Amino acid sequence: MQRYKNKIGKQFIYESYDTLLESWDIDFEERKIETAYGTTHVITVGNFSNPPLVLFHGTADNSAMMWVYNIKELGERFFVIAVDAIGGSGKSEPNENYYKNFNQVSWIDEILEAFDIYKTNICGVSYGAYLSYQYSLKRPDKVEKAICMAGRIPSSQFEVLSKMMFAFLPEALFPSEKNSKKLLKKLSGPNYSVFEKNEVLMKHWYYLLKYFNNKSMMQHKIEITENNEFSVLKDKTLFLIGEFDRLSNYPRAITKLEDNNIRYKIIKDAGHAINHEQAEVVNKEIINFLI
Fold first, then answer.
1. Cα-based angle 127, 32, 53 (whole degrees, multiple of 5)
2. Residue 206 resides in a domain
3. How many domains, in total, are found in the chain?
4. Structure letter (DSSP) for residue 90
C-alpha cells in the first residue's frame, strides 16, 4: 500500500515537514530506528541525562506538526523522543511485515531498546493518547507516567468509528484548501487563530489531507479494554481534554474515566488540537505532572 497518493504529494509533505522542523527553535536530531515493521523515524531533543519522554502524534499528522508549539519547553526539561508513527504521514517507512503482522506494543519496545531506555514517561495526542495508555496497560513496568491528550477510552468499535466520522466528514473526503481550513476550525475551540497565523503549518495540514493515504494507518488498530484492566492507570495517568473537543469530551467518555478512577482535567477554550490551542497551559500541565 502506498502511503502517499503520488510522488509530488510526498515531496510537498516532506518539504513542509522540514520547514516546520526548522521553526522548532531548538536543537534537534533526526534518527532512523530499524524495527521488525520497518524504519521508524524519530526526532530527539534535549539532554540524554534528563528524564526520558516519548511523544506520539495522532492518526492524520506527524511529529513535526504535532509538537511545534510544545517541543522547546519540553526539550528543556526532558530527553524527548518524538516518534513518527510507522505507516503514518511522517518519515517512518513501513515494510511488508507492518501490513501483515503489526504489533504496537512490540514496536514501542523496539524504540525504547534502541535508546537503552528501561522506563520512560510517555505522552500522546488523540490516537497517540491511545498508544500512551495502552502501552502503560501492557508494559506497566516500563512506564513511569503517561499523559493522554485529546483522548478517551472507548467502550466499543462503533463508538470509535462514529465519533471519527462525525468529526472528520465530509470535509476530509474533499481535501481542498477551503475544506482543510474548515475541518481544522471544526476540530478546534475558540483559539483557532494559532493555526491561521502559521502559514507553514496550514499548508502542511492541507498537504496531509490531500496527499496522505490514511488507509496506511489502518494497522494501528484500537483494542477495546474492559474496566477491570484499568487499575494500573490510576496513579500514573492523566488525561487532558479540551472543553470543545467533540472526540473526547462527551458524557460516555468522561464517565469511563470517572468509573475507573483515572485522573483528567478539562482544558478551557481548547478543542481536539489541545496542545496547539493552549500550548502554554498544556506544557505546564505536562511538566507539573511528570516532574
1. 50
2. yes
3. 1
4. S
Instruction: Please check whether residue 2 lies inside any domain of the structure.
Output: no
DSSP β-bridge partners for residue 148: 124, 239
- Residue 70: helix, strand or coil by DSSP? coil
Neighbours of 214 (CB within 10 A): 16
| CATH number of the structural domain spanning residue 258 | 3.40.50.1820
Domain housing 109: 7-290
Q: How far apart are CA 203 and CA 143, in angstroms?
A: 35
DSSP, res 155: S
Q: How distant is the alpha carbon of residue 123 from its chain centre?
A: 8
3-class DSSP assignment, residue 93: strand
Per-residue pLDDT of 258-273, as tens digits, reads 999 999 999 999 999 9
Beta bridge partners of 10: none
Q: If you write DSSP's letter for every residue of 8-74 in order, what string do you get?
A: HHHHHHHHHHHHHHHTT-S--EEEEEEETTEEEEEEEES-TTSPEEEEE--TT--HHHHTTTTHHHH
Contact 51, 290 (CB under 8 A): yes
* Dist. CA 105–CA 131, nearest whole Å: 8
Give the lowest-confidence range in 26-40, 109-123, 213-227, 230-244.
Answer: 213-227
pTM beyond 0.90: yes
